[in-house]
Amino acid sequence: MPDAVPGPTVPPPATRGEALAAALAALDALAELGETIEDEWTYVTALAEAGRSRLRAAAGIDSAALLAPDRGAAVVAACAETARIVDPHRAIDWLSTFPAVVELALGVPGAAPGGSFGGAPGATPGGAPSAGPAAGPGAS
């Protein structure tokens, strides 16, 4: 069952700056929800600050740069997904995930699958190749 009913349709941002503003607002809402778990306050605050830094870098220096409509729509969809979250634990999970989703939506180099997460099939976050399935007894 979804957390909440989807909200109204939002037009896609026309510029990278508008996309950044929308993403920062969504990130702040996630942080606010995550901070309701007292024992996680420090962790949530650190995640939110790291996320803000990533989002600002992803938006680039020229906030007036035009954004392709499909990229703007992807940012809106990601923000709408965060707005559906009502569980503070899920909000904390999304604080660590959301900036990467926005980077991908904005077309940040290295953010696409195979980009900053390694580049090769089977790579793990950080770039190390995965070991693949473990061979069990009798495997050849």
Work out the radius of gyration.
17 Å
Task: State the separation between the terminal residues, measured CA to CA.
Answer: 44 Å
Characterize the largest beta sheet: strand count, sense, and whether it forms a barrel: none
Strand content: under 5%
Shape: globular
Low-pLDDT stretches are 114-140
Mean pLDDT: 78
> What quaternary form is this?
single chain
Total strand count, please?
0
Treating each run of at least 4 consecutive H or I residues as one helix, how many helices? 4
What is the structural class?
A: mainly alpha
Helix content: 40-55%
Helices and strands, in order, run as: HHHH
Output the keywords.
140 residues, mainly alpha, disordered C terminus
What does this structure look like?
This protein is mostly helical and 140 residues long. It has a domain at 16-106. It has helices spanning 16-34, 41-59, 69-83, 88-106. Helix 1 (16-34) packs parallel to helix 3 (69-83) and helix 3 packs antiparallel against helix 4. The longest helix has 19 residues, at 16-34. The N and C termini lie far apart (44 Å). The relative contact order is 0.17.
SSE layout and pairing:
Layout: H1 16-34, H2 41-59, H3 69-83, H4 88-106
Helix pairs in contact: 1-2, 1-3, 1-4, 2-4, 3-4
